């Protein structure tokens, strides 16, 4: 056998061995990625969030302690109910373990007790406050609270660091969140900075005042679900106030693979295809 042919065959065998190893590695990585999709999407669906929140702490709901700095804060010994969102911690007054900050969306209600129980309200795809009017969270209410909770407001809208400005922003945002509850209250879309902010993103007032369904993915909300948290005393009776609650949510109807998973699938298919074309070319060369 001529040396050139022998060298060519040895080279091809070496390349084939390396390609086989590469294909096996990619396939194994793809299998690992597919098997870990549940780990990638670790968040719960909105309904699962409600079920977990309302049942894990006890028959009457989540046990908490509360207090006021500027926004109302809630804290619990159970970290499972604490959303991992930056505004709750980066702008906390001191170090408050397992705490988060929120706003009361029910006006003219008795003062909240320093401790009690809470449950998330979620019926027929929306979340309402427990009062005579049963107003529901609107898309505008959900979006503005999400912006606050994720520290996404510009300082001109909500100054988290300046005490006097923060107090003013808190009062204005609280009023806006309440007014946006659906059906909406009296809204000044001309001078209210939060309402003008919403219109700069979507100029449809009807959109922002329509009922928010936490089971749907809205572009403005992202992978979050916002609910009304109904407050009661430790025995589960005597409703005091209704506050907003936010958590990371998984939307199973989305069905789009993670980019890393998609890349591995593509690499696996490309590697297998390359190996197939090479084997066909080798057979053709030998003929």
Per-chain topology:
Blueprint: H1 3-35, H2 37-40, H3 46-55, E1 62-68, E2 72-75, H4 86-90, E3 99-102, E4 115-121, H5 139-149, H6 163-179, H7 193-201, H8 205-209, E5 224-232, E6 242-248, H9 259-286
Antiparallel strand pairs: 1-2, 1-4, 2-3, 4-5, 5-6
Fill in the keyword field for this structure.
alpha+beta, disordered C terminus, six-stranded antiparallel sheet, 287 residues, single chain, 13% strand, globular, 6 strands, 2 domains
Biggest sheet, spatial arrangement of strands: 3-2-1-4-5-6
Strand percentage lies at: 5-15%
Give the N-terminus to C-terminus distance in angstroms.
Answer: 16 Å
Number of domains: 2
Q: What's the overall average pLDDT, rounded?
A: 73
Shape, please?
globular
Helix content bin: 40-55%
N-to-C order of helices and strands? HHHEEHEEHHHHEEH
Largest sheet: 6 strands, antiparallel
Which regions are unreliable across 5 or more consecutive residues at pLDDT < 50? 26-41, 255-267, 283-287
Number of strands: 6
Task: Round the Cα radius of gyration to an integer and report it.
Answer: 27 Å
Number of helices: 9
Counting helices, strands and paired strands, the structural category is alpha+beta
Describe the protein in words:
It is a single chain. This protein starts with a helix and ends with a helix. The protein has two domains: 3-38 and 258-286; 42-248, no CATH class. It has nine helices and six strands; from the N terminus they run H-H-H-E-E-H-E-E-H-H-H-H-E-E-H. It is globular, with a radius of gyration of 27 Å. The chain has a six-stranded antiparallel sheet with strand order 3-2-1-4-5-6. Helix content is 43%, strand content 13%. A hairpin with a 3-residue loop joins strand 1 (62-68) and strand 2 (72-75). The model is unreliable at 26-41, 255-267 and 283-287 (pLDDT under 50). The relative contact order is 0.17. The chain is of the alpha+beta class.
């Amino acid at each position: 056998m001529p040396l050139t042919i022998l060298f060519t065959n040895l080279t091809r065998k070496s390349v084939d061995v390396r390609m086989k190893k590469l294909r096996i590695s990619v396939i194994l990585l793809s299998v690992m990625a597919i098997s870990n999709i549940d780990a990638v999407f670790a968040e719960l669906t909105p309904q699962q969030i409600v079920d977990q929140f309302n049942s894990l702490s006890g028959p009457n709901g989540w046990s908490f302690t509360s207090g006021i700095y500027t926004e109302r804060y809630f804290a619990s010994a159970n970290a499972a109910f604490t959303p991992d969102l930056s505004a709750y911690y980066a702008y906390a007054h001191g170090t408050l373990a397992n705490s988060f900050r929120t706003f009361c969306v029910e006006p003219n209600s008795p003062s909240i007790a320093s401790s009690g129980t809470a449950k998330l309200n979620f019926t027929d795809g929306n979340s309402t406050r427990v009062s005579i009017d049963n107003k529901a969270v609107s898309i505008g209410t959900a979006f503005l609270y999400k912006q606050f909770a994720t520290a996404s407001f510009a300082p001109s809208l909500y100054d988290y660091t300046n005490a006097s400005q923060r107090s003013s922003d808190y009062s204005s945002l609280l009023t806006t969140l309440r007014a946006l509850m659906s059906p909406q209250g009296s809204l000044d879309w001309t001078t209210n900075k939060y309402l003008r902010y919403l219109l700069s993103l979507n100029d449809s007032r009807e959109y922002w005042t329509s009922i928010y369904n936490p089971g749907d993915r809205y572009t403005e909300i992202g992978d979050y679900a916002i609910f009304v948290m109904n407050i009661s005393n430790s025995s589960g009776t005597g409703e005091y106030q209704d506050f907003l609650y936010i958590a990371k949510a998984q939307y199973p109807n989305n069905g789009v693979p993670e980019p890393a998973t998609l890349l591995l699938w593509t690499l696996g298919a490309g590697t297998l295809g390359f190996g197939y074309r090479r084997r066909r070319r080798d057979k053709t060369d030998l003929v």
